[in-house]
Structures are given as structure tokens and as C-alpha cells.
Amino acid sequence: KEYTAQLIGLMSEHWAVHDASILISITGAAQDMSLTTRLEQSFKRGLAQAAQATSAWIVTGGTDSGVMKLVGEGMAEYNALERVQLIGIANWGNIHGREALFDVRDGVIEYAKTKPNDATGANLEPNHTHFLLVDGGVNEDGQFWGTAMELRLAIEKAYCKAYAVPRVMLSIQGG
What does the pLDDT look like over 77-119, one tens digit per residue? Predict the structure, then answer.
């Protein structure tokens, strides 16, 4: 609990994020998604409108795949990123090109896709406004996938409790 409060304080202090009136946590299919074009556009438009109307924080897994890519593209397509914080909380060990992020302190770097997403990792989704990269070790299968989820949920719960903000979780096609 103590570390989540510290993380929230650091996010507020160093990221210059606005206070949210709602936190929307989105999870689901991390690879292939099969939505019809109409359903995909309706989801993007509806989420962007709802998020802008409430000055939301949206939290995803942050990678450029599946539902996280859909959310990032939707927020950009509907110009929602001026009013919405789109925060990706991802597993450090699964980020392609993470070497470029070593030892970055108080600076800005250009992050570029280094290779296609695959079973070993994924690129960061470029429309997210902020990223928290978590070194959670490996899971029982020897993989990094999913190891950031515990911290992500703790941060979401702590933020909502500390600021009396409701939290809505959307799960799109499982995951």
C-alpha cells in the first residue's frame, strides 16, 4: 500500500497529470482481435466521448497490440488526448526496444518500434500519454506476460480510494 501511494504521488508530481473524475481500466485480448469495423468504430467513438466528457484516466497494458492498440488509436482518432490521460502499465521484460530506455532521467527520447510484436514481446502503443514499465520478474511459465497486473490493479484501487474516484473496468474479448 505504501509503494502505491508513493507511485501515485510521483505520477502526479512528475507527470503533470490532471485529476481524474473517473478511472477506466481496460483489459482484454492482447493479440488478435476480431471486431467488425462497425463495432470497432462504435467502441472507439463511445470511449473517446465518455472519457473526454469526464476527464478520465484510462489505464491499459500499454502495448501496441490488441485492445490496447484499439484504445490508443481511438483516443488519437477522436482527439481525446488533450483531456484524457491514457496510461500504459506494461511489463518491462516484454517491451521490444527497451534497451533505448535505459538510464533515461528527466529527458525525452525517441522510442521507435524495433521489430514486430511476437510471443516474446511487443512495442509500446504510441498514443499513450504516459507509461509505467514494471519489472515484475517472470510468471510460473517463465514468461514476463501478466507480471505487471498486480501492481496495475493496486495503483488503480489506491488512486480511486485516495481521491474518491469511481473505477470502471472494461474487458474486451477476454485476455
Answer: 999 998 999 999 998 888 999 888 877 766 677 788 889 998 8
Instruction: Write down the pLDDT at residue 139.
Output: 63
Q: Exposed, middle or buried, 154 (CB in 10 Å: 0-12/13-18/19+)?
A: middle
| Cβ atoms of 96 and 117 closer than 8 Å | yes
Crossing angle of the two packed helices 37-54 and 66-77, in degrees rounded to 10:
60
The CA dihedral of 60, 64, 65, 68, to the nearest 10 degrees, is 20
| pTM listed for this prediction | 0.88
Here the cell at position 19 is 485529476
Q: Between residues 43 and 7, which one has the greater pLDDT?
A: 43
Quick one: average pLDDT of 115-140?
Answer: 85
CA-based nearest residue to 100, from 114, 90, 121, 117: 114
Residues 115-151 as b/e (b if ≥16 CB within 10 A, e otherwise) read: eebeeebbbbbebbbbbbbbebeeeeeeebbbbbbeb
Q: What are phi and psi for residue 132, nearest 5 degrees?
A: -120, 115
Instruction: In whole angstroms, give the CA distance from residue 86 to residue 101.
Output: 19
